[in-house]
Fold this protein.
Amino acid sequence: MGQVLGDVLGLAAGVAVSPLPIIAVIIVLATPRGRLNGLVFAAGWVVGLSALGAVTLVIGGQGDAAVKGQPADWVGALKLALGPALVLLGVRLWRRRPADVTQAQLPKWMAALDRFTPVKTFLLALLLSAGNLKNAPLTIAAAITISSSGIPVGEQIGALAIFVLIASLGLLIPLGVYLVMGERAKNMLGNWREWAARHNTAVMAVLLFVFGLKLLGDGIGVLTS
């Protein structure tokens, strides 16, 4: 299990460093129902990643992702497809990043977060975790890596749980700071939100490019081994 954790922790870190979800949870925490909606947002995020990872584990198990203790060829082909797609998306985002970071604009839907009900907050977190163009491929890649490792099912579930925990730290840290410090955390969280808003596009572009290359290399390694 130790080896497979080493393979997926980097992917988990890539999911954790997600500027838009971090900005979203900080905005949610600043609303009148911040404590409740912040907890709901974190729950939706964890459920989204866990559900996507679990489905991938099941598919990997039924599709014989591991053959004689080694990843099957289709696992390598999947990573080979995901890798270049992430690289191209990263390059596209990098070219579209604002020349002046002070002019960076957030999505318009974020202006309505203070009016979101707990149900809408939960659904938003699901979308930002399991439906995100960066987080979904990285979660699928991590789960298929776990599934193709050949370790027992119980250890696969444990590895996925650790992946989800690490991948959620980007949200859990601001939430934890708010729950501990309360109103005193607003200035600190506001500074975090401002930095993330200004550098969102550049951070996303770099992460997509780096992890796309990693998946590309992993896919080539599987198919040529």
The chain has one domain: 2-224.
